[in-house]
Design goal:
Blueprint (H helix, E strand, L loop, with lengths): L23 H11 L3 E6 L2 E7 H7 L9 H11 L2 H4 L13 H10 L4 E6 L2 E7 H11 L1
Antiparallel strand pairs: 1-2, 3-4
């Protein structure tokens, strides 16, 4: 295992993103369609927040098993904006940050994804799943 491998070698470059003017129904659709758990919120190419699927589930009644589930979710989603639900104080890394450094950040913090930002531009995202896949390939 190389000690100085940059995160750029394993990060996701094809970024699914939201803007603060998008709605939470769109966010849920993107989470489900892309089978992801974290979406950066951007203004142009600059990151302004992060939305996780867990954040979305905290405000919804997604676990409702009634026949009115979609109606209930729509009502709840319309009560909040992306900007109200997203995390605003986002920790980021650069594409030359080492995988070891990213692992330490994610192992000691209470989140599971880091936006990768170079020169104020979002260039990727690295998740705990990316790290697990990387370490699995090493053995």
């Amino acid at each position: 295992m190389r000690q100085r491998t940059p995160v750029s070698e394993i990060m996701t470059r094809n970024i699914v993103a939201l803007t603060k003017s998008d709605d939470l129904e769109k966010a849920e659709t993107l989470f489900k369609r892309n089978k992801i758990r974290h979406i950066p919120v951007v203004s142009r190419d600059m990151i302004i927040g992060m939305l996780s699927y867990t954040d979305l589930m905290r405000i919804s009644y997604a676990e409702t098993s009634s026949k009115f589930e979609n109606t209930v979710e729509s009502v709840v989603y319309n009560m909040f904006t992306i900007e109200q639900v997203m995390v605003k104080d986002v920790v980021t890394v650069t594409s030359d940050t080492t995988i070891k450094e990213v692992t330490k950040i994610l192992a000691t913090r209470e989140f599971h994804a880091l936006p990768v930002v170079d020169n104020d531009t979002l260039v990727g995202i690295i998740t705990t799943t990316d790290l697990l896949n990387y370490y699995h390939q090493q053995y």
